[in-house]
Each structure stands twice: as structure tokens, then as C-alpha cells.
Amino acid sequence: MSVIIAGTGSYLPEHVITNADFESFLDTSDEWIVGRTGMKERRYSDVEPTWKLGEHASRKALEAAGIDPMDLDMIICTTVTNDYAFPSCACMVQGALGAKNAFALDCVAACAGSVYGFDMARRYLQFDDVKTVLLVACESLSQVANFEDRNSCILFSDGAGAAVLRKGDGYYGASIHSDPDGAQHLYYKHPRRGTPFYPADAVFEGEPFIADPLGALVMNGKEVYKFATAAMPEAVEEACVRAGVAPDKLDMVLPHQANQRILETAAKRLGLPMEKICLTIERYGNNSSASVMICLDECVREGKIKTGDAICLVGFGAGLTYGAVTLEYKDS
Ligand code: COA
């Protein structure tokens, strides 16, 4: 059983942040950022909350699929930057859309989230009580970035992508993994408030990762880079084997946009020219789980993928999580 991608949508906030904007307060340069990452611009949502980005992208996906929010049975939202600890971001999007017939839940797998969510959707769609799923990835990484760390803050961005998914036929293969061994290389820790009976700043001795004093994300770029360059091709290869498609026969790869050099290294190992790797990194930077869904929407709308194409969605990130889904693209 595979999945039909009945409609896609994306939303990028209007506020453009250029490399020159970082030069104004950090010891960095456009040349360094472009050379090391491929990024020129990213988008910040400013006052718009994460769920609102998700609502915008979802409305476009619903319109493209030609369906009403009331037709949705399930909403899966992927985010690491939910505005609320509860309710879930999926419930917030559901409320904004008025999708009253759906049940809604979040899938938290960092930058691999939308790939995990895609495979989750397929599993729910195997049973007849779920016929139409909205998968929406929305992220506001600007809200957790460390603006005193030139190594990491230049990477992250805000945005959302969505797709309406239904049960379909055609080949399908997934490779979904998490490896806690490298989790210390990328994390964001919520502050504890303490209680009237215990202080907030008390540290649990077994706590593996120490919160950043600024309340921002913590990243060891070199280690994440090493992990990503190995994990991305490994996941694509495994998903391709399971789908029965040779990696070098893929028509388009829709990857998480972490670093252009990571994507170039992976493309080489997979025997794919860069034209087959969707790139939004120069314009949007790293949108965490939304990157893959934004790529999907852009490729569908620009006709870069068409019915019958072999496509591969692939993500990797904190956890450490990584995964890929290879399938035959169909929109009906
Ligand atoms: N501007 C200028 N110089 C910078 C800089 C910046 N924004 N950030 C780091 N540097 C400096 C470093 O301080 C270092 O200087 P030094 O040699 O004097 O110590 C030098 O550039 C090289 O740093 P290094 O860490 O070796 O660079 P790199 O080639 O590994 O690139 C990253 C850094 C962060 C771009 C790269 O490691 C990366 O992309 N990692 C993956 C991160 C990621 O994808 N995270 C999200 C995963 S979902």
C-alpha cells in the first residue's frame, strides 16, 4: 500500500533575513555563510505563531486537493517549536481550520519529523476509518536560536509545508531510525520552574544535557555534520531497497535543508546529479521538519515532479533521528 499526495501547500513568512543582517551584530560574513552552508536568506515569522504558519500551508494544501477541512479524518503536525506545551500544535491547526471531524496529534522527531509523519500517515491509512490525512510541518526556529552563537544561529529559519494524503497503490519503502547516542550534539532544554517546595535551579545529577544559559538550542556543528553526511544516504538507500528502486533511478530527492555541502556529499554517494536534489536552502535556510514539505510543495507546483516519478523524502536531525520514504508519486 502506498500514499497519494492529493494536494500540497507551503507558507514562508515575509520577513527576509539576509547574511548581511547577521554581519551587523556577529563576527561573520556573507562569504563564510554561503561558502560553508549555501544559505543566503532565511525567513522569520516575527509575531506570527507556529500554528498560524501551519494553518496557512494547510489551507493551500486543502485547496490544491479540492477538499473541505471537514473532510479530514486525521491531522499530523510535526514541529519542535510548538507555541504551547499543550494543546498540541495539531489541535491548534485543527481549531484554526475548523476540521471538526478529524483527530489531531503532534509527531516530534525534529528535522526528520515530516518523514516520520508521512510514514505514520501511511500506517493509519491502512485501516478504513482513516481515509484522508493532513500532514503539516510548521516551525519557528527563530524562537529557539542562539543569537550569540555564530556557528548555529545563521542556519535556522521559519516556515511551513503541508500535504493531503490518501491511501494509494504503487511502490513504497520507508527507513525510519533514531539513535540516542548522538543526542547530546543537538538539543533544546525547557527551563524548569521549580515549586514552592523545590528550587528551579536545582540540577538533577543524571541530567544528560545542560540547558543553555540563554534558553536557546545547543549544537555541536561538526558532530551533527558527520552524522548527517552518513545518515542521509544510508536512509535513502534503505528506503529505496524496500521500495525496489535503485537510488540512482530516483527522479527527485526532497531532503531536509541543513547544509548544501551535506546534500552534495549525499548526492555523490547516491550517484545522483544535483539537479535531482531539491534545494531551497539558499532562500530559506533550515526550516527543520518543514524543509522537506516545502520542497515537496515547490516541486509539485513547479512541475518538477510528475505522476509516476520515483521520489524520496529524507530528513535527519535531533534525537538523533533520521529517515527516508521512497514512493511512486501520484496525486490521484
Ligand atoms: N562566520 C564566520 N566564522 C564562523 C562562523 C560564522 N557564522 N561559524 C563558525 N565560524 C568559524 C569557527 O569559529 C571556526 O573558526 P576557528 O577555526 O578560528 O576556530 C571556523 O569558522 C571553522 O569552523 P567549523 O566549525 O570547522 O566550520 P564548519 O565547516 O564545520 O561549518 C557548520 C560549521 C555549523 C556550518 C557545519 O558544521 C554544519 O553545517 N554542521 C551541521 C549543522 C546542522 O545541520 N544542524 C542542524 C541539523 S538538523
Descriptive notes:
- The protein has 332 residues and is an alpha/beta fold.
- Helix content is 30%, strand content 24%.
- The strands form four sheets. Strands 1-7-6-4-5 form a five-stranded mixed sheet, sandwiched between helices. A four-stranded mixed sheet has the order 8-13-12-11, sandwiched between helices. Strands 2-3 form a two-stranded antiparallel ribbon.
- Helix 3 packs across helix 4 (89-97) and helix 6 runs parallel beside helix 7.
- Bound molecules: coenzyme A.
Could you provide a short overview of the structure?
This protein has 332 residues and is of the alpha/beta class.
DSSP summary: helix tally? 9
Using the alpha-carbon principal axes, give the shape: globular
* Number of beta-strand segments: 13
Oligomer status: single chain
The low-confidence runs, each spanning 5 or more residues with pLDDT under 50, are none
The helix/strand class is: alpha/beta
User: Roughly what percent helix?
Assistant: 25-40%
Strands of the widest sheet, in order across it, are: 1-7-6-4-5
Q: Between the first and last Cα atoms, what is the distance in angstroms? A: 14 Å
The small molecules bound here are: coenzyme A
> What's the overall average pLDDT, rounded?
97
The biggest sheet amounts to: 5 strands, mixed
Strand share of the residues? 15-25%
What value does the Rg take, in angstroms? 19 Å
What is the H/E string? EEHHEHEHEHEEEEEHEHHHEE
Features:
single chain, 332 residues, alpha/beta, 5-stranded mixed sheet, 4-stranded mixed sheet, binds coenzyme A
